[in-house]
Design brief:
Helix content is 71%, strand content 2%. With 201 residues, the chain is mostly helical. Helix 5 runs antiparallel to helix 6.
Length: 201
């Protein structure tokens, strides 16, 4: 027992000595060191979560589906604010970048819904891949379950795509004439997709 106590004492002494050697100011107490460490962590957190950092992540012009609400007024304001400090060509380029991003999302949503509708038609006609042909009652039930889950997922995606498409189209319809009447922009490139092509006004 005496030997164990001596070993523990030696280990504690070595740890305290090493700590004293690696600490710049050995007069500081452990409480001071702990407080300084917490302060450094707080300062680092402030830098990571600063308004400037979050501002850098924000798009120049808000997304039309941001938060799932109608934010067309925020979009108009962002364009007006940008125009107040930039010339017409720069503003048109910024709006065009925003438009092309959302037009690509709209095209993708429309195309995905077309594929979903084709799958729905194939199901009604009884089309199946060869790999999905049942060879037993158990396989038939499993395939039925897979198709049920697939139909539910397709329905959910179709509704989401429809909602997204409607929001983007409505924003485009409201924004397009304003770009010409308010700023005198050339809006020949500002086409509005519909399910069957372009439906620009």
């Amino acid at each position: 027992m005496k030997h164990i106590v001596q070993i523990v004492a030696l280990l504690m002494g070595s740890i305290l000595f090493a700590f004293a050697q690696t600490t710049p100011d050995s007069s500081k107490s452990l409480g001071d060191v702990a407080r300084e460490s917490r302060k450094e962590k707080k300062d680092q957190a402030k830098i990571v979560l600063s308004d400037e950092t979050q501002q850098l992540r924000k798009p120049l012009i808000p997304d039309v589906f941001d938060g799932g609400i109608d934010n067309i007024d925020e979009i108009f304001k962002a364009i007006s604010d940008y125009r107040s400090t930039h010339n017409l060509e720069e503003t048109e380029a910024a709006v065009r970048n925003w438009y092309e991003k959302h037009d690509a999302l709209l095209a993708s949503a429309i195309e995905e819904n077309r594929r979903i509708e084709q799958r729905e038609r194939d199901r009604l006609l009884g089309y199946r891949d060869r790999d999905m042909q049942p060879h037993s009652q158990e396989e038939y039930q499993e395939i039925q379950h897979i198709e049920l889950v697939s139909r539910r997922e397709d329905l959910r995606h179709k509704q989401e795509n429809g909602l997204l498409s409607a929001r983007i189209q409505q924003a485009f319809i409201r924004l397009r004439p304003q770009m010409k009447s308010k700023y005198g922009m050339n809006i020949e490139w500002f086409k509005i997709r519909c399910g069957n092509g372009n439906c620009s006004y």
